[in-house]
Design a protein that fits this description.
Largest sheet: 5 strands, antiparallel
Order of helices and strands: HHEEEEEEEEEH
CATH architecture of the largest domain: Sandwich
Number of strands: 9
CATH class of the largest domain: Mainly Beta
Shape: rod-shaped
CATH topology of the largest domain: Immunoglobulin-like
Radius of gyration: 33 Å
Strand content: 25-35%
Number of helices: 3
């Protein structure tokens, strides 16, 4: 059963109006900037640990899986440059790397695990060895609960409907042209 040209034209106009309504709803409900630039995850706040002995103070600042350690004397707050530091973290000894600015760097995946952890800075300077105990509270990023693909999926649906409407309108015009040529 073929549709009469008047019904087919009405169907094409109805479909076009539906697509325009969907576009209006999609652009007012979901701004285009939400589709183009999704929100970036918030940066992880740095964690900090302080450990001291009778003579030394060690301050560690953690960013992701890396800790920057600053070691100084308590007497005059002078930085200690010529020490060898190892860190006992989660039952494993981790060596540090001395940096040019006088700080020490530790890089391990154990620093990325959330929660409170006891650690020991083992400082060796010449014949002197000291252990500085501290507790590190590692914070984590809360998991995202909302779906960021909702607006993108709505855009794909609108595009799909627009292509279908365009195809129906093209089909309607061809049938009208064939009917006019056959008369």
């Amino acid at each position: 059963m073929l549709l009469r040209p008047a019904r087919l034209a009405w169907l094409a106009w109805f479909a076009a109006a539906t697509v325009l309504a969907w576009l209006l709803v999609a652009t007012t409900t979901f701004p285009l900037c939400a589709v183009a630039a999704p929100d970036a995850p918030p940066p992880t706040p740095p964690s900090r640990v302080e450990a001291r002995s009778a003579d030394l103070l060690a301050v560690g600042i953690v960013h992701d899986d890396q800790m920057a350690i600053h070691l100084s004397r308590l007497l005059d707050n002078a930085p200690v440059h010529d020490a060898v530091i190892t860190v006992l973290l989660r039952g494993t000894l981790h060596p540090t790397i001395a940096e040019a600015d006088g700080s020490y760097t530790l890089k391990t995946k154990d620093l990325a695990l959330p929660g409170a952890v006891a650690l020991v800075f083992q400082v060796a300077q010449g014949d002197a060895h000291e252990n500085l105990d501290g507790t590190l509270q590692i914070t984590s990023i809360p998991a995202k609960t909302e779906d960021q693909n909702g607006a993108r999926q709505m855009g794909w649906w609108v595009l799909n409907f627009a292509v279908c409407i365009g195809f129906l309108m093209l089909l309607s015009r061809r049938r009208k042209a064939a009917a006019a040529a056959g008369d």
